[in-house]
Write a structure and sequence with these properties.
By secondary structure, the protein is mainly α. It has one domain. Helix content is 81%, strand content 0%. It has 7 helices and no strands. The radius of gyration is 16 Å and the shape is globular.
Length: 186
Amino acid sequence: MDFITIFLLAIGLSMDAFAVAISCGLTLKPPKMRNALRLSGSFGAFQALMPVIGWALGQTLAKYIQNVDHWIAFVLLVFIGGKMIYESLDKDSCENHIDPSNNKVLLTLSIATSIDALAVGVTFAFLQFNIIFPVLYIGITTFCITLLGVYIGKKIGGMLGKKVEIFGGLVLIGIGAKILIEHLCI
């Protein structure tokens, strides 16, 4: 996997966290740097941890499905990207005003925004490459983007929340298509 793909994957995966961070920026009263760093650190850590868990799960399955692994990677990424787009367009979803500085809320948000990274970790196992750099890059990128999201949330509110989730979903779908095309053309 090349650097550009890893970069786009990190950006795509961090869009859920970015959207949540924007809404957290709206609710953090006052927006203390400590709270923004806790939120960003937690989101970044979970975005880095979940692909490792997915990779470990995928390693156990990889030898059984190596002939169709590119199709599985494609389907997983399209599903995750499609789910992100669908949820961003869902008119019934309403954002509750919650306290993201609460430990239980922070843990729940961290897990919820990183579930897609678990599936990406399974994809990493199927592609059979070293995941250390991508995982670190995903975690650091998510940390930075989440920190930015908290402050954007304070400044401009919820105008961007849905749009960034759509963008993230499209990026993941594009990466899935790239993986499939590369394997079919070999």
